[in-house]
Design goal:
homodimer, alpha/beta, Alkaline Phosphatase, subunit A, Alpha-Beta Plaits, 2 domains, 14 helices
Chain lengths: 407, 407
């Protein structure tokens, strides 16, 4: 559909705000889902006058990861484009990636040795504080700058997390990033030695293997972070930017690295946010509202509390976001969308496949469907249930940014 | 899907009437859409007993042109098949098209000359009366019959419109019709000289260029229609006929050229209608009801008044059509469908992307969904929201014309 949209896009000066409450959708506990239990007078009003429905994040019955779910919301079919976690992590930490780059998510871990064999005793190295992480990464970076002509760049993340970028002398061939995670997923097991799914990936994996062993040598005297597990080996996919695909100058307001990363991948400008609060994100939106056409506004904690199984805390985050809706409205955007990237029912403590309630507020909504913003009410709305990958088309039309198709 | 249907179609003697109220869908003004505001007791009754829902004409969020929207209703995916306006215009005026034919929509215009350079002063030549058009086309046709071995056939349309068919000695190669419109779209600008997007189209365009210059010479003393602008250069797409695709002997009852054109393209017999009134179309339906299996019955004015922004007049056309529903029922068709090809909300004065309400009346509808025929009520219906391209499959099943699929 992006090919079609590229031909019929017509720029104008409308402003669009896409609010993504991560993991918004839920399951009822005592009769109501988190969204239904929350007191959300502002979103309820938008739902009554707006177009409502549900979106299916990736495909019917599929539980998406956050990267895949966001790609869908942004109009890139996640069944066609895959983004490895390494790429998301690296971009989120502000690293640039070229086709020569292999990106990997690193997790510091604690191992004990049985003879020469490392056994994982803590997959997260006791969630070391971030400054300990920074010290260790700096130690590794001083010792290892290059292996077999491959440049290595390591960056600290939060707690035990890091991103590593291997820059090869030339573009990594297709399939060259098909390398198994080294994280054994279970404590008491040995890390899995890096190996590829095909000969190209094996060549790449041989460099990774040397790196892992040298890191283990460098960290051998550390008390907690004495090993590095690696996940999500990936080369960046080629995606049309929001500017090319949709004619939109787009900006990202998100606090967590992965969401900032996926936004960068589609060409959004990632805006600075003072701290992790919704209030700070709103401040950024207000400050930069004049500078872009499209704002992706991300709220993380709905998902986090869903994953924790904390129904009430998820409700409170939804209510907190709702209290800022008038601030968004005051800016006078032409189109406001509120939805989630996927469902994270606190009853399941996990992402799920359930379709996600959505509202689109614009002058071109029929309205009169849902009486409030919630899973059951949105079933009455004019949008029905549609694939998330079609959302951008709808948004562009509601913003008057698409010409008609065909004679 | 047509490939599947071709295998499982089973002819019978059922009669189907597909009523398309052009641009039927709307947006609420004072709480109701045009269809909801209209007093439509007959369609309301059909909706209560029938299957209701919405269809998405081309794709979610896409605003279709009328040709693309009709292709979808007829079961040909408009994202796969594109029909140029020239082809629709030519077929609508009763011209036959072969793969050797390039069809073009011509608009008589008024130009003034600055030196040798024509400047468009009226893109529609003051909407000259049709008989003036006929006189001028006859004058051109006498003078130009052939250029470089290419036969030229020009036919008058309504007011300033015409269709021109260039018949080449052999089939036009793929891409040969990729010629830019010569209409500059704005008055005060020069017509754009015919040129192609590729070498094949350039060859074709060189003949068009000679034609345009000769026409300008012939018309130089005309007061109003002294130039010919050309749009929608196109070769006919290859579509399976209704007879082959569905086993249906189909007929078209429509008054406007473009709709008659698209019907001819899919192999319908285009029936004569005495004048532009719905009454005359009903008379044709009554007269020829015994002769065909499938009737496409088109009402144009709903769209025209939508485009004019005339809510009340659109309501009245809907009510007028409703008053003829008993006449259709009296003929005893097995399946009646009422829908639009797309939405044309008078609030927008334009086509839009909004899903279109639909009712299917047949003995196999579950019924009991919508309480009347309107956008909001149809959301309660059993059909949900589906792509228009799937409608013909539904219709054929409701007519008992499809065997089961698979063992």
């Amino acid at each position: 559909m992006q090919e079609v949209i590229k031909k019929i896009q017509q720029p104008n000066d409308t402003k669009i705000v896409l609010c993504v409450l991560d993991g918004l959708g839920g399951l009822p506990v005592g009769g109501s889902t988190e969204l239904e239990a929350a007191n959300t007078p502002n979103m309820d009003k938008l739902a009554r006058g707006g177009a409502t429905g549900h979106h299916t994040p990736v495909a019917v019955g599929i539980t998406p990861g956050s990267g895949a779910a966001h790609l869908g919301l942004f109009g890139y079919d996640p069944l066609k484009y895959e983004i490895g976690r390494g790429v998301l992590e690296a971009l989120g930490l502000g690293l640039h990636l070229s086709p020569n780059d292999l990106a990997i998510r690193g997790n510091f871990a604690t191992v004990k040795y049985e003879g020469d064999t490392p056994i994982v005793t803590d997959r997260r190295a006791g969630r070391i504080p971030t400054d300990e992480n920074v010290r260790i990464v700096s130690k590794i970076s001083k010792e290892i700058k290059e292996i077999d002509g491959v440049k290595i760049n390591m960056t600290s993340g939060i707690e035990h997390r890091s991103a590593i970028v291997f820059t090869f002398p030339e573009a990594i061939p297709e399939g060259g990033d098909a390398i198994h995670d080294t994280d054994p997923q279970l404590e008491g097991k040995s890390p899995i030695p890096p190996s590829g799914n095909n000969p190209e990936a094996d060549k790449v994996a041989s460099v990774v293997k040397k790196f892992v062993n040298r890191v283990a040598e460098i960290l051998k005297d550390e008390e907690r972070a004495n090993y590095l597990l690696m996940r999500g080996f990936a080369v960046r996919p080629r995606l049309a930017t929001f500017s090319k695909a949709y004619g939109l100058d787009a900006a990202c307001i998100a606090t967590y690295p992965m969401y900032r990363g996926v936004s960068k991948l589609v060409g959004m400008e990632v805006l600075e946010v003072e701290d992790y609060s919704i209030k700070s994100e709103i401040d950024t939106l207000k400050q930069d509202f004049g500078k872009h056409d499209f704002f992706y506004f991300h709220v993380k904690k709905t998902d986090s509390y869903g994953e924790d199984g904390n129904f009430d805390a998820k409700v409170r985050v939804i209510e907190e976001f709702d209290s800022f809706v008038p601030d968004i409205l005051e800016l006078g955007p032409d189109v406001i969308v509120v939805t989630g990237d996927h469902s994270t029912p606190s009853a399941m403590k996990a992402h799920s496949w359930h379709p996600v309630p959505i509202l689109i507020s614009s002058p071109y909504a029929r309205g009169g469907g849902a009486e409030s913003f919630g899973e059951s009410e949105c079933l009455k709305g004019e949008l029905g249930t549609f694939r998330a990958v079609d959302l951008m088309t709808l948004i562009l039309s509601h913003a008057g940014r698409l010409q008609k198709y065909g004679a």
